[in-house]
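Here is one chain, start to finish.
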Amino acid sequence: MKKLRVILILLTIIASLSCSTDEANPVDPIVDEGLYFPPINSTEWETVTAQSLGWNVSEEQSLFSFLENSGTKAFMILKDGRIVTEWYMNNFSQNSIWYWASAGKTLTAMTLGIAQNEGFLNLNDASANYLGDNWSSLTPEQENNIKVIHHLTMTTGLDYTNIFNQFCTDADCLFYLNEPGEFWYYHNAPYTLLDNIITGAVNDDFEDYFAEKIRNKIGMTGFWLQSGFNNIYRSNARSMARFGLLSLNKGVWDDEVILDDSNYFDAMVNTSQNLNESYGYLWWLNGKESYRVPGSTLNFDGMLVPNAPNDLIAGLGANDQKLYIIPSENLVILRMGDNGGEGQLGPSGYDNELWQRINAVIN
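Its structure:
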């Protein structure tokens, strides 16, 4: 009986100590519950507080102000799949639709990997196998030397020098300039042709195939919409976050395998050629010794985004559409909005500015 009384007293003391935390600044326990996936066809999505993660919440207002003042529409941070931050501003809301620009290239890259895994194509096949003959103004021999992988890595060798035709996918816009695989240039037209390559390979419309294999399986919404020669994806911010979570988990959504080819995934998010170390299969890569950027033939020394984690991989689009994946931290971060300042097609100085402010919060 005395032992029981002693135990009860100890429990009372422990309980009183646990309640002595400053009520104005409660600290939630940090519990690692593994990677969380929100349910399909539902608005339910678990959240976790920045405070419980030990983040510097006093810097959140500075981050918010920077985003708002730089034309941001939506900004989200996921930690272990759970929403830490979900901000909408500048006349935008959770259900508003925005364009991904070239951040949507990552969707195409994963769709292509699925098509290869299902046996419809091979990266080393001539793209003419699926585009047909005379898809360009090259000779038949030159045309057959261009493989699917060259479209995927920006190394087709097609002429990019006419700035008015860089988006044009008509045959009379596509001329020989370099041997395939020997020069890297961020040329949008050869990328856009991947839609037709996938369509020709799977004998189904690219957009329908993407919806069946990725969008519907992970609960995304959104659609592809032609803008001139470009085919651009549009969705709400949460759909981009869902794809980011799928990519964080290497093509697996909860217990469903979406991309059943780990070798392809690894190649997709690592250096894909020796001409631009910071480019995979349509994904941008941080932590490399050099990089090239859209609109330039120069090679720059250093990391793509010095303020960001070395293992960051990213989908980056015009007017600073950002999808950041940080595997070492189980983080997905996205930004949708208007031009943050420089208006470049992919990476921009805005990345580094943004990461300076993100770091102030999460470190």
